[in-house]
C-alpha cells in the first residue's frame, strides 16, 4: 500500500501538485516574516531589487518537489532561472512576489505558482501565507481557500472607468511614456492605489477592485495571476490586447467592457 505521506507521483493531479508546492513554500517562508534580523541581498546594481534567504529556500523546496512529482516538466523560477523539460509544460515560480513588502512586514506579497503550456498558463495560485489566503484558478474555475473553507471567486461587473478602482505597484509604473498611459487611465478612475504587489491581482479576482495596470514585468510575475483572474471571469492582456504571459506591459480588468475602455487609452502608448 502506498504511504499517504509519499503518494505515487502518477496519482497526483496538477492542482494537487500546485497545492503541495504552495504548502511547502508557506512552511519555508513564514518563519522569516517580520523577523527583526531579516536581511536581503541586492540583485540590481543600479537600484534595489532585494532577495532574501526565504525567497531562495522556498524556490529550492518547490523545485525539489517538482523533481519528485513532475520530473518531465520544465521549471522557470525567479531566483534560479529556467530548467528544461521534455513535456512541453513549464511550472512558473515566484517564491516571494513583493520581496520589498516582505522586508517591510506588509502582507501584500505572495507565492506565485503557474503551470503553463504553449497557449499560456492553465493553472495558477496566488498564496498569501501570513493571512492564510490561497487564490486558485484552473479550468474548473476560481476559488479562495482559507481555514474557514472554500468559496468561489468572481470578478466585478463595473462597466465604466469612472466607477473603477485601479491598482498598480510602483507609482512610476515604467518608462515616462508608460507612466503617461497609466495616468491617462488613472485620471478617469474613481480611485487609484499603489504598492500592493501580487495581492492586487488577488483582490481583482475576488471582486474587490476593477483594474491592475503595470509594466516591466517578467513571466514569473504574471502567469499565476493571469490564470486566477481569467478563471474568475476577468481579462488579462498586454497594452495592445495581445498575450501578456511573457511579461512586459499588463492590463488586468474585471470584465471585457472595462478592459476595452482601458485598452482604448493604453494602446496609444
UniProtKB/TrEMBL annotation:
Reported cofactor(s): Mg(2+)
CDD domains: Bacterial_IMPase_like_1
Lipoprotein recorded as keyword: no
Enzyme Commission numbers on file: 3.1.3.15
Molecular-function GO terms, alphabetical: histidinol-phosphatase activity
Keywords: Hydrolase, Magnesium, Metal-binding
Domain of life: Bacteria
UniProt-listed NCBIfam families: his_9_HisN
Family, as annotated: Belongs to the inositol monophosphatase superfamily.
The name this protein goes by in its record: Histidinol-phosphatase
Originating species: Pseudodonghicola flavimaris
